[in-house]
Amino acid sequence: MKAEARVVAESDGLGGTRLAVLRGQSPLLLRQTGPRVAGGVTVHLVGGAAGPLRGDELRLDIEVGPGAWLELLSVAAQLALPGRPAPASRLTINATVAAGGTLRWIPEPLIAAAGCDHLAITRVAVAAGGALLWRDDLVCGRHGEDPGDFVADTLIRYDGSTLHRHELAVGPRAAGWNGAAVLGDARALGTVVTAGPATLTAGSATPNAAVMPLAGPGLLATAVDADIRAVRAVLDPFCAAHPTAKAPVPA
Amino acid sequence: MSLATLLLLADGRLPSGGHAHSAGLEAQVSAGRVRSVADLDGFLRGKLATSALVSAAFAAAACAAPAAFAGLDAGLDARTPSPALRKASRAQGRALLRAGRAMWPVAAIGREPHQPVALGALASAAGLSPHEAAVAAAHGTITGSASAAVRLLGLDPYAVHALLARLAPECDRIAELAAARSGDPVDELPAAGAPLLDIGAEHHATWEVRLFAS
């Protein structure tokens, strides 16, 4: 299955945000829903079909203009499944945030089911003065099963420089992924990357989590655990309390 | 190429302070994740696939083009979210550079480069190839943790070295992969991360009493 979705958020000129473009194809359907946020817009990703399955080629483009505030959520977890013999499924996300714009990406977890072969490519460019909060949660396998192959390939740039470059591989092809350097016994991982000077904030660490100031203007909060609930217990409050959660107040 | 020169560069006795670092192992031992040789095996295989691959690729790239050090240094910053790990890498780079300058005419690459950048510049000054720099980097990544494991856990040194011997082919494979990609643009160089190493390093840095600097 091939699908493309695109959302463009721009300032409405009155201190609020409007969606200039909102379109998608199953299984990447976008709906303006969620709580009404003064000054900002919330969009939900609605899974319109099972998957991603092997062979799927999915693409999501996100554009946040100057002064716009956009939060992207999803209604349910993504379940990466094996499907028929085919090349790896791939989800490519390209996002840009202009100066004065804010993007919050907080989807439900990706579950890498046994036998899946999935690649998630994330490319985000934030202009100087823009703000980003980018969350990704991963669950390795459904209950009691080992995960299939999953690779996350992430590049986040701020003001023209690479701020965060990270790859994570789990599954049978990833040597040592369940060793004590990478995930150990943990089967759930959550990461939040923020970009922009206005996104730096203190976070509390637990034995299985850390909030790390990056070398550039941003930070990474990482939490691992046997269970995704423990990861959410750390990262949900972090995202809710984060400075980007406040949309601009309309004039 | 000189095999004896490569052995010198990869020798744990090189006076560059490497023995003071467990490369993330001490934190995982304390967390109870590494208790046995089998646990160490999993730890080292994960390291080879992640931080060793990244270090080897950047060492090879710095060996091929030491003048490109600033971009490589920034590339490692972007791949090292943990401030404690960035600090440890730069401290080791600086110490390695100091030892290296006494041995070979090392190019100017800044005062405190990341360790793989320093290693690559030393290899270049010593007349070694990018592939040899990658082998030294990958080898150093796992042998440092292995000898720390003997000291931290009292593991049988024969069993630990038997493990290193089993991992040698994987170490070679990682170094070859790293060298093959070392000409790529910095953003496309390997970026495999290891969440437990990041989290562990941040906690380890706050301990008042510890055996290793990282």
Automatic annotation (TrEMBL), chain A:
**Quaternary structure, from the entry:** UreD, UreF and UreG form a complex that acts as a GTP-hydrolysis-dependent molecular chaperone, activating the urease apoprotein by helping to assemble the nickel containing metallocenter of UreC. The UreE protein probably delivers the nickel.
Superkingdom: Bacteria
Cellular-component GO terms for this entry = cytoplasm
Identify this protein by name.
Answer: Urease accessory protein UreD
For this UniProt record, give its keywords in alphabetical order, as a comma-separated list: Chaperone, Cytoplasm, Nickel insertion
Similarity annotation:
Belongs to the UreD family.
Q: Where are the transmembrane segments?
A: none
InterPro entries tied to this protein: UreD
Please give the Pfam families that the UniProt record associates with this protein: UreD
**Taxonomy-wise, where does this protein's organism fall, top ranks first?**
Bacteria, Bacillati, Actinomycetota, Actinomycetes, Micromonosporales
Q: Which GO terms describe its molecular function?
A: nickel cation binding
Location(s), subcellular: Cytoplasm
Q: Per the annotation, which location comes first and is thus the protein's main one?
A: cytoplasm
Role this protein plays: Required for maturation of urease via the functional incorporation of the urease nickel metallocenter.
Automatic annotation (TrEMBL), chain B:
> Principal localization?
cytoplasm
Q: Does the keyword Oxidoreductase apply?
A: no
Checking InterPro entries in the record gives: UreF, UreF_sf
* Gene Ontology terms for molecular function: nickel cation binding
Location in the cell reads: Cytoplasm
Q: Which Pfam families match?
A: UreF
List the Gene3D superfamilies hit by this protein, alphabetically.
Answer: Urease accessory protein UreF (1.10.4190.10)
Cellular component terms per the entry's GO annotation: cytoplasm
Question: What keywords are assigned to this protein?
Answer: Chaperone, Cytoplasm, Nickel insertion
**Subunit comment for this entry?**
UreD, UreF and UreG form a complex that acts as a GTP-hydrolysis-dependent molecular chaperone, activating the urease apoprotein by helping to assemble the nickel containing metallocenter of UreC. The UreE protein probably delivers the nickel.
Q: Hey, which family's this protein in?
A: Belongs to the UreF family.
* Role played: Required for maturation of urease via the functional incorporation of the urease nickel metallocenter.
The protein here is known as: Urease accessory protein UreF
Native organism: Actinoplanes regularis
What lineage, starting at the top, does this entry show?
Bacteria, Bacillati, Actinomycetota, Actinomycetes, Micromonosporales
- Name the gene that codes for it: ureF
